[in-house]
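Any chance you'd type out a single protein's sequence alongside its tokenized fold?
>
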Amino acid sequence: PLLKTYFPNSTLLVDHFHVTRLINDQLNHTRKRIMRKYVKNKKSREYRLLKHRYKILLKSKNNIDNETFKYDKIMECHVTENMILETLLSFDDELRQAYNAKEEYLIFDQVSKGEVNNSNKRKELDAVIKKFKHTHVEESISVAVTLEHWKEEILNSFTWINDRRISNGPCEGKNNYVKKILSNANGMSNFQRARNRILYSQNKYETYTMNEHTDRIKRIGNPRGAYKK
């Protein structure tokens, strides 16, 4: 109601980065649940790989190295990232299904502007949701419920402005920059000075002059007394 009242021409959407993070978090929960099956023998290869090589599961399949062989202490031989991935997925069918569902969403999400215009994203999203439901993995089913609930907002995220997919990343970057300024200053008790510093640092076209402002910005409060050693 507030959105329609005060921003009638706005479009509500979900940032695709946060959807991907949700799916990876749920996949990680599946990994931990399966890892607990081997907790009685923490020296087993299954437990050690699930505990120490889990980041491979969270990477996109397109970024998995399938050529470079490196010695792995847990595998005790020279292997590629893809070989470690396949070993991890062989431990449990639920983990493989959850991983495959995650990859299906990444394929749906990682598209260019031209591909969006030449595809039916609504139909593709429905297929992805079915994929998560049919895994019969509790964490993946939870993802399917979330995707179904936020379907329209997810579809709205495929909006391109000035050849860039819309995202709240720039806004979050600004917020993080302000936090760093306040952190480096150990906090600022004078709001007006803090505001001026933030606005000046964020405007790359702004120039500074000594005579522009004649009013001095002083902290409100009692004046300091004489300093006594």
About this structure: Residues 16-35 form the longest helix (20 residues). The radius of gyration is 26 Å. Strands lie at 70-72, 77-79, 160-161, 164-165.
